[in-house]
Amino acid sequence: MTLPAVGAARARDLVSYFHGQPIFVVGDAMLDRFIVGRVTRISPEAPVPIVKCESEYVRLGGAANVAHNLAALGARVTLVTVIGQDDAGRRLRAALARAGIGDDGLVEDSSRPTTEKVRVVTERNQQVARLDYESDADISGHALGAVQERMAALAAGAKMILVSDYLKGAVTREVMRTAIALKESGTTRVIVDPKIPHLELYAGASLITPNHHEAESATHRRIRTDAEAREAAIDFMKRARCEAVLITRGEHGMWLSGPDAEGSIPAQAREVADVTGAGDTVVATLSLALASGASLPEAAALANHAASVVVGKFGPATVSPADLLANWGQTGV
Fold this sequence. Notes:
The protein has 333 residues and is α/β, with parallel strands linked by helices. The protein has one domain (8-30, 61-113, 135-326): Ribokinase (UDP-N-acetylmuramoyl-L-alanine:D-glutamate ligase). The protein has 10 helices and 13 strands. A hairpin with a 4-residue loop joins strand 12 (254-257) and strand 13 (262-265). It is globular. 47% of the residues are buried.
């Protein structure tokens, strides 16, 4: 079954409520650094290309990219995450400031590096190599206590608590328990962008957004058709003990299963440049739409449109309200 499309008037109405909605994000933030150059020859030392570096730039990644997407769409976003006392941490802090995101929720931990992914790419956006600086050990001790304290202090009043899990240590059993406790003590929802090794941690979440590979891994089911997606979603909800599931399926769109709605959302035709960070855009748009009064199918449809925009850009990217409305032939809010 295909869910009804969202009309242009309804999309415009929902997007008009985006501005100022309070959304809380907790999870694994990272810095994505790109070194761009030209490849002119192969190294005589080894069969690898020699890249003549011409420029360098950074972008926010992981939970920081989720927060950036929310801010770009007009939300009032708070981010709680862990960074190191290093140059990458200072760069990440500065990039958040440029995006209009405060640093009240940044917890520094001198025992671990800021998660940083350094990509060497050509001027045609072809990736040559990637270097990862990270620790994937769970945060503990002072860092864990500080994250829980910031969550309790800064999530008050948020309409959505969004957990962005990249298995880099910030999302622990204790952090998830704190998120679910905040949900149960108020009127907020908890939405999780998951990693399957942590599936049992997400019990009690309002909504989880696995991609189709993650859904297959969690349920041991193949997903090739809508019928298979439906069965996997039902199984996923049982295993994760959550209220609803949105499976993102790339060129096949999405499948939504929840207490009040179930069905497929067709993909929007768009030339794909890079899928990096598309899941961040999906979960950010979904959360903000729900906070703005959208039903779950409407929020999923808006997130689907946002994903179709961001995959046309290179690297972790954001979508503006105008970008989103342009998919319905509109601009402005």
